[in-house]
Fold this sequence. Notes:
Distance between the termini of chain A: 70 Å
Radius of gyration of chain A: 25 Å
Low-confidence stretches of chain A: none
Oligomer: homodimer
Helix content of chain A: 10-25%
CATH topology of the largest domain in chain A: DNA Polymerase III, Chain A, domain 2
Strand order of the largest sheet of chain A: 5-1-7-8-9-6-2-3-4-17-16-15-10
Structural class of chain A: alpha+beta
Largest interface: A-B, 32 and 32 residues
Largest sheet of chain A: 13 strands, antiparallel
Number of helices of chain A: 6
CATH superfamily of the largest domain in chain A: DNA Polymerase III, subunit A, domain 2
Amino acid sequence: MKFSVKRSELVNKLNIVSRAISGKVMIPILTGIKISVTDSDLTLIGSNSEISIKTVLSNTPEKQENLVIAEKGEIVANANFFTNIIKRLSGDRVDITTEGSQIKIVAGKSEFMVSGQSADNYPQLPRIDDLDSISLSSKQLIDIIGETIRSVSIQDSRPLLTGIHFIIDNEQLKAVSTDSHRLSQRITQISSANSADVVVPGRTLTELRALLEGIDQLNLQFDQSQLLVDLGQTTFYSRLLEGQYPDTDRLIPSESTTGFVIDAAQLASSLDRVSLVAHQSGNLVAKFTIKQGKLTISTAQSEVGKVSEELSIDHFIGQDLEISFNPDFVRDALSSIAEEQLNFSFTTNLRPFVIRPASFSDNNKVQLITPVRTF
Amino acid sequence: MKFSVKRSELVNKLNIVSRAISGKVMIPILTGIKISVTDSDLTLIGSNSEISIKTVLSNTPEKQENLVIAEKGEIVANANFFTNIIKRLSGDRVDITTEGSQIKIVAGKSEFMVSGQSADNYPQLPRIDDLDSISLSSKQLIDIIGETIRSVSIQDSRPLLTGIHFIIDNEQLKAVSTDSHRLSQRITQISSANSADVVVPGRTLTELRALLEGIDQLNLQFDQSQLLVDLGQTTFYSRLLEGQYPDTDRLIPSESTTGFVIDAAQLASSLDRVSLVAHQSGNLVAKFTIKQGKLTISTAQSEVGKVSEELSIDHFIGQDLEISFNPDFVRDALSSIAEEQLNFSFTTNLRPFVIRPASFSDNNKVQLITPVRTF
């Protein structure tokens, strides 16, 4: 293998595949990046066995200076070490040659010779049966992930809840996550007539989101156990979580007895202060008191202290209410929805309450939070 | 105690005293900040028993809006918790009142009531006998610390080496540090006729440096066991390290048999690459090869690989040489000196070599590095 490449292009590609690489893999060769060169392409692959990322740099006539291939071949290079070397080299170009299992890296007056591993032992990429694909804009997927990722469970006791449930049907994509204390739902209109029902690991979507910058349109393909995302030069693979995700539609209340509209920035600032007292005590509870159309947020923690703030609300309807909740969950919901005006609706202080954008009355953007029982 | 204060002023003052506060103190009350109010001043004190910082906000007629005192008193507030509350409040002003051992904090529509502790139990600040003081510009002290702090030992086996040795005499301040593998020395001309010979803990100087921004001139005072730095509104106290610092003058070679001048940026960039291979192997060794007026830097590590780079040098004098060293020490020395052109001078490959600014031939700015024996 022997090629010369524009260093900035190689650094970009290494940054992409490095997102799949974890220090904590059971298969030693997966600490490496597979580098393959054909007559026309340089392909890099990184994987942690759950997520795999492949990216291709082509030897196109328009941009011949990007990649000049002298000899085909493949090798596996230590991911961090190789990437750090390429990043710290001086000069625009780097020449890479294999000599047996050694990799020679030359740029400017620097010459490295580092150990590689045979690419024969590198696992194959997953195969996805050629199903119909679902086309989506990158912006749509960024919004979907942003609005649902925070409610993904971080506990392994119910593995399915560590993922986001995607239900694609009737030109609609519904994404739902819940850690059983709160729930996020986002419904997006899409133009695909295909359907699917899968659970994608939350970590997968966090890594995928990081690859979407500069991408316009993408294609999703699913089979029973794998997701493939086609981003053009880059292809992203992830295993899916298997099993039956709980029915969440029945959890979203269809009625409310108390409601108001509130400025999100005002509430976020209050929550940040109230959280200080809750976190200082280790007891993550705050309380909304709604009385005669006025809203107070407060917490009182013996030993530590107490805080109380009055908030301005609009469009108050319904009955007085006292309800306790985890302030971090409401703070997260505000970050997830990212709208200036929010509608809160409550039934009783034992039932989940719902946060929606003030301009939405449907269930397209929902953050649902279960209250904390304090008695 | 009852006062009203401009919030941004209080945040500034809290940031200053917080630098002395550590989560790992043996004396529980030192996790707090002592707040004292007299008829004319608000004083804050933070301490970790090694370092103490006192800062004063005065009720001056010109800036009356900064501080309005209604009632004298003092209390100790939990440092992190109180500081975070003040930082996250909305509005320009904050009103602080004590009610027994409780502290009431009111700003805008927020009202906090948090637990404090009696100031009676807070330790007294160290007393420094009224010795002659040494005046220094803030810039001089920043340079002295920056050029010597990296050679301070981080190991407790020889406690004196965890400090910087200050020798003040004859209108000269000599600062020296060594971890026994390398040595940094900086001599500064000062206008004080007083003399002193003390060892200041490295951590003290790191914290002190952080307080020097915006300060023009400062005064140092020492007694046998304490340092006091007068920064105007802020006073910084530190204990000194006791004992006889080793004689370091005899360690700096007065002759050399090989020498050259090199561009610091070029060498730093090469060292960063060579260090990658050394760090990957865990064996922190690199080698200068000086042959017929040419300099090569290299390292070869079995298992990991090797790297070699040719460097441009000027003003070469003397004999060929091969010398092995810890590349991190040379990299640190480059950061410490922070000059564009450096002079390296060597005797044999067993004796320490010296790095100075190319424009200096005296010992006012010295970085000395002991070679690594590789045979």
